[in-house]
Specification:
The complex is a heterotrimer of chains A (332), B (372) and C (197). With 332 residues, chain A is mostly helical. Chain A is built from twelve helices and no strands. Chain A has one domain. The chains are: A mainly alpha (332), B alpha+beta (372), C alpha/beta (197).
């Protein structure tokens, strides 16, 4: 048998297992973080520190009946949750966890991730529309315009990185940041003194956009529960809802790992210390913690405030950043 | 409403918000005619928790009706106790000992603080901020514990009697209340840094749901909502009752009339209530907590009587009609949020759902009190 | 003073009765009794003085007229009995034979039974001054109708709707009298005194 096929199958299984396990861990982490921010303990009954809580929840969700509401488009209704999961899993293919640990080293990895990840919004649209529920439809419309608005500044800031590093290969972007934190793209003192002005802003924009893209609070307008009940997944029960839930956490992981790869040196250690997967996971989980921290601290923005932020602030700034990047690359 | 809803060319649709909806706090239903995200028409539909308290009042004796008062506004039940007791006392000409009135004021103000704290938490929940609720509950829990010791219940209080109180407070309660005043005072700045000064919160509340003074007048709006619209109206000051004239406190008034103004009024009221509680503890006179010559069966003389008190949500009024027997002939309960909510249809026109939620939350709705 | 001003304004409408009451005893300052069709004019006068509407209360005086008649009959019968007793006593004192007592008159025949009424009470209050005005009007119980004030005080809309729910009092010109607190298909009025569940 072709060893390449075995390798691919092995990676697929590993990635799926990682996505599911990671999402379960993130749910647990979210609940613990929320608990401690809110002066309570969070889950503690199932397993040590309640670490098995997510698995108990998962089993509960899987044993529940999948209810298809009357008047729903049955096919699309059932396809939508899978459409959330599949791109999330596919995105993991290009992410370099360490120098060796990457499913595929593709030379347009960054582009591929953006291309695949944008299918996600399609799934939200379908799920919301197929539910035959007015709240879900409003939410689907919101999710689409939100994604369209935030894709633009996100891509522009990604372009600044690509211009700076000269590659779209994620592995190479990480390799270019070797040596120490002064070489990381967020604050590249060691490489290009001009970019020190541009990159922190780019990182901020990118991080905000990735939160908006993944529908995380304070930008969780898609499922804004006090307005739209539960948004696009209002009508989903059991594992249908569970997949949306897992997909969200998988997307959060992807968003944060992209931020880490593009700006925070990926799997590189801060002082040129032993690089490896632990650095990568440490940085990603720290960013995820920041995301959760924000969710449990801030109230939700309004939909129009959100769009204004993107179209009137983030896009102009990111365009300006792009111009500056071009200039600085030439000058320094 | 129907004309709008049927107009196919405008592409409007009807959205049922409630009776089970996270932002309607219980069982309010609002029928919204929507044009995309914008509300064309809003029509509150009431009655999902209507229990006909006014009929119940006609079928039991004056004293037996007191427990119903805890079932109207379950968050500020002691104000309602106070309103009803005071109305019957006015009708029957019962004088209340001063100590009892001091304790009434003290407990009512603690109850008002707990109601405002819960509102603050629940309002932030409406706006998508989850954490303040838990912080507010932390403080509210202290109040409930204190009140539980003296009144015997944590939520649906039935503590006041005609001519006094069910029982006296003890030193432990006074010490705890004093400690609580200090504690909440030290925590209020934290609430302001955590919540009030948040940029997103300001963006969501400033200029949202503006009510002007004239609109208040037309709809009979009272309480923090009126005070957020620049009307200096507080029954405790305007129509002094109980021992309130003996206390030194301010009525916070904001002129903007938006949700932020209502938010600030309530937050400032917590401070003022703390001042009243503190003064009541310090000046608590000795003496009985029950008037001596209260008849076993109260029979107010023929006639009608009105008494209003400042509840946590506005002016709560009781209109009694007595025919001289041991049961009320007619019992009208004027609940503040009933009037406050009635302007929703006018204010919600042309705003987005999110802003309507922010506006409705700022009215501090308690549905059992609206539906009675 | 506001109380005097509003009193003059309302007195100009020539209401049936206008009395100043003791706030401490009754809880309101001015009690105005008007006929049903005077209600909007009174409300308008009150609005001019910048009052706000507090509540609208219905009261069903079912059996009131019968009670009045019965009371009158009782008084009359008592008086007659007293007169008879006095006559008997006088006769006894005089030592004469007791004359036959005058036959007691049948009360129902004499006193005319007026139709029962329902009362609608409007409470108004003021934001600046401590002054509560009560406007009350009486409508016949078998045809309870009076004009609405919901165009003068928009807040009266719900209060009137509620009064219609509970008493069946029709407010003419009200935009929407469908049940508010009761179920939307309710055809009963629970606060009527002859309502049986």
């Amino acid at each position: 048998m072709n060893p390449e096929i075995i390798r691919v199958v092995g990676y697929v299984v590993a990635v799926i297992a990682f996505v599911a396990l990671n999402a379960a861990m993130l749910v647990w982490m979210e609940r613990k973080v929320a608990g401690h921010i809110q002066r309570r303990i969070g889950p503690k009954e199932v397993g040590p520190f309640g670490i098995l809580q997510s698995f108990a929840d998962g089993i509960k969700l899987m044993t529940k009946q999948l209810i298809v509401p009357e008047g729903a488009d049955v096919l699309l209704f059932k396809v939508a949750p899978m459409l959330v999961m599949i791109p999330a899993i596919m995105c993991f293919v290009t992410i370099p966890f360490s120098e060796q640990l990457a499913a595929r080293n593709i030379n347009v990895g960054l582009l591929l991730i953006f291309a695949i990840a944008s299918v996600n919004v399609f799934a939200l649209l379908l799920g919301g529309w197929a539910s035959n529920n007015k709240y879900a439809v409003i939410s689907a419309a919101r999710a689409v315009s939100q994604n369209v608005a935030y894709e633009i500044p996100m891509l522009i800031t990604a372009i600044t990185v690509v211009m700076f590093t000269g590659t779209m290969n994620l592995q190479e972007i990480v390799l270019g940041q070797a040596g120490g934190f002064w070489n990381w793209n967020i604050f590249p003192v060691g490489k290009n003194i001009g970019m020190v002005v541009v990159m922190p802003i780019s990182f901020l924009i990118f991080f905000i956009c990735s939160m908006a893209e993944t529908n995380r609070a304070p930008f969780d307008l898609g499922e804004a529960e006090s307005e739209l009940v539960a948004g696009f997944h209002t009508e989903y029960a059991g594992m249908g809802f569970g997949l949306f839930f897992l997909g969200e956490y998988a997307n959060v992981f992807i968003g944060c790992s992209l931020s880490v790869i593009l700006f925070l040196g990926g799997w590189q250690g801060p002082f040129g210390l032993l690089p490896g997967v632990h650095w990568f996971l440490l940085k990603v989980y720290f960013l995820i913690f920041v995301v959760m921290w924000m969710r449990w601290t801030f109230p939700r923005t309004t939909f129009y405030g959100l769009l204004n932020l993107s179209w009137k602030i983030l896009i102009p700034i990111s365009l300006f950043n792009l111009v500056l990047t071009g200039a600085f690359i030439k000058v320094f | 409403m129907s004309e709008m809803a049927c107009d196919k060319h405008k592409e409007t649709f009807v959205l049922n918000m409630g009776p089970q909806h996270p932002a309607t706090h219980g069982v309010l239903r609002v029928k919204l005619v929507m044009d995309g995200e914008y509300i064309v028409e809003a029509e509150p539909v009431l009655g999902y928790i209507h229990r006909m308290h006014e009929k119940m009042g006609e079928n039991r004796t004056w004293a037996q009706f007191m427990p119903n008062m805890g079932r109207l506004d379950y968050l500020g039940a002691l104000s309602y106790n106070h309103g009803y007791a005071a109305a019957v006392e006015r009708a029957a000409g019962i004088a209340v000992p001063e100590r009892a009135e001091y304790i009434r004021v003290m407990t009512v103000e603690l109850n008002r603080i707990s109601s405002h704290l819960l509102w603050m938490g629940a309002y932030l929940l409406d706006l998508g901020g989850f954490t303040p609720l838990l912080y507010a509950f932390d403080d509210r829990e202290k109040i409930l514990d204190m009140l539980e010791r003296v009144t015997g219940s944590r939520l649906t209080y039935c503590y006041f009697r005609f001519g006094g109180l069910y029982n006296d407070v003890d030193d432990q309660f006074l010490a705890e209340a004093k400690g609580f005043v200090a504690r909440l005072r030290s925590r209020l700045p934290m609430y302001h840094t955590l919540v009030t000064k948040n940029v997103i919160l300001m963006q969501r509340l400033k200029g949202i749901g503006v009510i002007d003074a004239d609109m208040c007048r037309r709809y009979g709006v009272t309480g923090p909502v009126a005070r957020g619209s620049g009307l200096n109206y507080d029954v405790r000051k305007n129509e002094p009752y109980s021992v309130y004239p003996q206390f030194d406190f301010d009525v916070p008034v904001y002129t903007e009339g938006d949700s932020m103004a209502r938010y600030m009024v309530r937050m400032d009221e917590i401070e003022q209530s703390l001042r009243i509680v503190e003064q009541a503890i310090d000046g608590l006179p000795d003496g009985p907590v029950m008037a001596e010559k209260v008849p076993k069966i109260v029979k107010p003389p023929k006639g009608d009587y009105y008494h209003a008190v400042e509840a946590a949500r506005g002016s709560f009024g009781v209109r009694l009609v007595s025919n001289g027997t041991n049961t009320p002939y007619r019992m009208k309960l004027r609940s503040p949020t009933y009037s406050n909510l009635s302007l929703l249809a006018e204010v919600a026109k042309g705003v987005t759902v999110a802003d309507a939620v922010a506006f409705m939350g700022s009215l501090d709705l308690v549905i059992p009190e609206i539906d009675r | 003073m506001l109380r005097d001003r509003i009193k003059t304004a309302l007195a100009a409408l020539s209401p049936l009765e206008i009395t100043e009451t003791d706030h401490a005893k009754k809880g309101y300052d001015l009690d105005v009794q008007v006929s049903p069709d005077q209600v909007p004019a009174a409300a308008e006068a009150i609005r001019q003085e910048e009052f706000f509407i507090e509540a609208v209360t219905g009261v069903d005086w079912f059996g009131e007229q019968a009670a009045i008649v019965a009371e009158a009959a009782k008084v009359k019968a008592a008086a007659a009995k007293k007169a008879a007793a006095a006559a008997a006593a006088a006769a006894e004192a005089g030592g004469e034979a007791v004359p036959p007592a005058p036959a007691p008159e049948a009360p129902a025949e004499e006193a005319e039974l007026l139709p029962d009424v329902m009362e609608v009470v409007y409470d108004f209050s003021h934001y600046q001054e401590n002054c509560r005005v009560v406007v009350r009007t009486r409508v016949p119980r078998d045809n309870p109708e009076l004009p609405t004030i919901s165009s003068i005080f928009q807040g009266a809309n719900w209060h009137e709707r509620e009064t219609h729910d509970f008493f069946g009092i029709r407010f003419l010109g009200h935009p929407d009298l469908t049940p508010l607190l009761l179920p939307e298909d309710a055809d009963f009025h629970p606060l009527l005194k002859d309502f049986k569940a």
